[in-house]
TrEMBL record, chains A, B:
UniProt organism field: Alkalihalobacterium chitinilyticum
Molecular function GO terms recorded: DNA-directed DNA polymerase activity
Family to which the UniProt record says this protein belongs: Belongs to the beta sliding clamp family.
Predominant location category: cytoplasm
Occurrences of domain DNA polymerase III beta sliding clamp C-terminal (ranges): 256-377
Domain DNA polymerase III beta sliding clamp N-terminal: 1-127
Subcellular location: Cytoplasm
Subunit text: Forms a ring-shaped head-to-tail homodimer around DNA.
Keywords from the UniProt entry: Cytoplasm, DNA replication, DNA-binding, DNA-directed DNA polymerase, Nucleotidyltransferase, Transferase
Pfam families per record: DNA_pol3_beta, DNA_pol3_beta_2, DNA_pol3_beta_3
Main function: Confers DNA tethering and processivity to DNA polymerases and other proteins. Acts as a clamp, forming a ring around DNA (a reaction catalyzed by the clamp-loading complex) which diffuses in an ATP-independent manner freely and bidirectionally along dsDNA. Initially characterized for its ability to contact the catalytic subunit of DNA polymerase III (Pol III), a complex, multichain enzyme responsible for most of the replicative synthesis in bacteria; Pol III exhibits 3'-5' exonuclease proofreading activity.
Residue ranges constituting the DNA polymerase III beta sliding clamp central domain according to the UniProt record: 137-252
Protein's name in the database: Beta sliding clamp
Amino acid sequence: MQFVINRDRFVHSVQHVSKAVSSRTTIPILTGIKIVATKEGVTLTGSDSDISIESFIPTEENDKVLVEVLEEGSIVLQAKYFAEIVKKLPEGQIELSVQDQFATTIRSGSAVFNLNGLDPEEYPRLPQVEEHHVFRLPQDLLKNIIRQTGFAVSTQETRPVLTGVNLTVENEELICTATDSHRLAMRKAKIETNNTELHFENVVIPGKSLSELSKVLEETDQLIDVVVTESQVLFRLNNLLFFSRLLDGKYPVTKNMIPTHSKTEFKIKTKPFLQTLERALLLSREGKNNVINLKTLEEGEIEITSITPEIGKVTEKIKSSDLSGEDLRISFNGKNVIDALKVVDSEEIHIVFTGAMSPFVVRPTEHDLALHLFSPVRTY
Amino acid sequence: MQFVINRDRFVHSVQHVSKAVSSRTTIPILTGIKIVATKEGVTLTGSDSDISIESFIPTEENDKVLVEVLEEGSIVLQAKYFAEIVKKLPEGQIELSVQDQFATTIRSGSAVFNLNGLDPEEYPRLPQVEEHHVFRLPQDLLKNIIRQTGFAVSTQETRPVLTGVNLTVENEELICTATDSHRLAMRKAKIETNNTELHFENVVIPGKSLSELSKVLEETDQLIDVVVTESQVLFRLNNLLFFSRLLDGKYPVTKNMIPTHSKTEFKIKTKPFLQTLERALLLSREGKNNVINLKTLEEGEIEITSITPEIGKVTEKIKSSDLSGEDLRISFNGKNVIDALKVVDSEEIHIVFTGAMSPFVVRPTEHDLALHLFSPVRTY
């Protein structure tokens, strides 16, 4: 194998596929990045067997030569060293060549690296996905959906299926749901599909996969293909394939958890409310339960308090609008509500309570595509 | 005690004095920040008994009212909470008042924090320094000197005196020296003083103190006073006092360590040489000794190599100028040389070797105010 490649583009691709490489893998070959050169260009692959990322660099793009392949072939190089080396190479062009016994030479300017490569035949093949369930949505929208739901997945392995985000598609609408059983985040979005009958549920993508995917997604409305199979999901962008395994197990039916009645409700400006809660959180951390108390007062005022007995307490009053229903005192995990308010894309929210001991719902007032559900905390 | 204070200025001062507060202190009162209000303004103090920082906010500055003191007094508040609280307060003004039993109220807008304060009488007094040994230098120059020497202090407690930077003053010149016994960094600077006879040596300031001091220094040529006593040093800026204890023990005499003869020497451009070494370091880390090899070639070329047997090796040739003396092969700790080249403020350096097993010296070619000394590494 021998090729000369544009350094910046190579670095970019190596950084992408490196995101899938774990140094803690038990499969030695997976500590490497696979490099394949063909007449069409160079393909890089990284994988930790949960996530696999493949990035392709074509020989030409927009009339610019990116790669000149002098000899086809393949090699696997240690990701840890390889990624750092390409970043630090001095010139705009890199020459990579493989000799006998996987001995690999990387040249750029006057720098010459001789690396011991690994046998590319040992590298596992990427999953083959059948393209029955395919839909498309803009890249920036997907990035936003991940931001608005991914934070709510469970970090505990007691119920593994809750460490993922559940995807449901019906009536050309995607519904993403994440819950750790104390809070729930839901986000809907319109999708594009050739099959208007496309329908599936219980497709659970590990939260970790989505947070890695989010790092390679860009702020553009270019469409991304999502291909769903029995055990894998594939996100296909321009020259990039991102595979993730799906989580086994039955995701809980969350539809029925969302209360439809109201005992107390109000609207409030998102940002001032978030800042009030952040101040209250300063004195609610000691017991590690982040308890913040909310109380409705006269004339639409809301009182937020928290206390750490040894240190002190904080009290703040904030104006709501359209306050109606019964008087309310409720305590909740302030950190959970803050997490949600940080990702709400609406200047105002609508909060509906169903009693001091029952879940409450936060919705944006500007659209009905998102919902956050919280369990209260018993404080006695 | 009761005062109303400009929030931004208060936050700025609290952040400064917080740098001296350690959460791991064995003296409970030192987990707090002392606040004293007088007719002149508000003084904040933080200390971990090694470092003490005092910041003063005058009632007025440049015709702008900063503090309105309604009642004089003092209090100590838990630094951890207090610093976070003032940062997050909603309005431009903060009211702080102390009631009975050190109960303290902080108000800003609609936010009210009630904190349990500590007895200010328990707070230790700052050291009293006699101002016999005083000199002045620009703030930005001091910041630069710290950057150019502080990295070379020892991080090991086996010889505590080497964890500090040694200050010597003679003939209105300051000489700062740091060494961990494998490398040495020295920086000289002209100082201003009213006593042209000012002379001292063996004043050793802990490296940690200097790195904290560096964070409060700004990029301005405003002069800073340095007051040296038997056991303390005081840095006095506009409205800020920074005290540090000095390290006990005899600092080694480093003057005689610096070789005066030369067996091989050359000049080389700092940045390309630094980048070459950084590439070589990529393959010299495995053994944790960071060994890089240097070899002189024909026609002023220098060859830099490093090797990690399991991974591979790197070779790079780089042009030097004015190469003279014997042929040389030498190995050294590449990380140490890289640390020094990063702080050299000269486009070109002059390296003088005294043999493969003897120390070598790096000097800027543009001035003679700095010097770096390195021991070679035996590789056989």
